[in-house]
Amino acid sequence: MKVFNHTSYSYLFFFLFTSLVFFTESCSKEPIREKKEDPDTTHNSITYTNGIFVVNEGNFNWGNATVSYIDQGTGKVEQDIFGKANQRALGDVAQSMRIFKQYGLVLLNNSNKVEVVNLKDFKSVKSISGFNSPRYLEVIDSTKAYVTNLQQDISVINLQTLTIEKTIKTPTWTEGMIRFDHFIFVTSVGEYYLSNAFRKAKIYIIDTDKDLIVDSIHTGKEPLGIAIDKKQKIWVMCTGGYDHFEAPSLMRIDPALHIVEKTYFFPSTGSVPSRLCMNQAGDILYYIRGGVYQMPVTSSELPSEPIINSEGRLFYGLSVDPKTGNLFVSDAIDYVQNGMVYQYNAQNGQQINSFTAGRIPGSFCFTSGSGKK
């Protein structure tokens, strides 16, 4: 059985990007309709109150991360809104974005910071530094938020002072988070050997009143995606490892009892599943596995066919618009040129629109809700 170094394995996603830069060819199809930004549009012509932020990762170590904005009223796209508003680059590898009150919080993985912007004009309010490769942010209450990191801790943010107040130590890299009652369920990625003991990946359960890990649940290898349904069941997507260590799986967890109720196993061959998300009603799951798949939470088995075929495109990011229920899917193309974003009807998978984004569009954030991953 092969043993993997945890530190190098944690950065697998970033090295995957850079290794593909010079070897992958674009196989993107011609879009049905494309809304391109007006090159003469000034920064102040769009207000960021009714649209979608597209978080473009950029290339690892290139410092070319950006945020694009799709105005849902006009369909216009504005590129690099942070750069235009602040006359400087956003940073290196934009991982995700969350909205809190009048602020947008953009997590920059390789820059080890969270850039706080005013949503009215996207001007920087503060750069919070001191993270260990931040991944995702979850607002706990009006004064506190958690930020997961690649390097063995969760940062506790004071939302009033916009500073790191303390950290919660974790054995391995932490990723997605979901709230249940006054607890946070967080995926901890890492299946590794320590002191001759085999440790499996886990979901850690944190008491947000005490900022302490109080319990854990074993999962399959690499639990990256996490969502909660209308019956308050938590769903976790485990990739099985990009090394195909084991078959990928989808797990349903009872958060009150801290037990795994059911596990669905994917075929061990084929694309690795990713980008698990839930619709606003909490009754349908979506994920990427080459194409985009749709699965009712009441289903007894995994879907056999995608609702949206990739048709040679490199589907990379996925989210559900909480306002319209439409699906937004990004195409990273070849990790070098600007990517694409496609809008689909979630019921029948029909394409509604398409938009040009920045380089490696990875996640979405909606002004009408807390869009994430």
Task: Describe the fold and architecture.
The structure is a single chain. The chain is mainly beta and 373 residues long. It is 5% helix and 47% strand. It is built from three helices and 29 strands. The longest helix is centred in the first third of the chain and has 9 residues. The radius of gyration is 19 Å and the shape is globular. The N terminus is likely disordered.
Features:
single chain; 373 residues; mainly beta; four-stranded antiparallel sheet; 3 helices
**Average pLDDT over all residues:** 87
Task: Report the span from N to C terminus.
Answer: 32 Å
How are the strands ordered across the major sheet?
3-2-1-29
Strand content: over 45%
Helical amount:
under 10%
Broad structural category: mainly beta
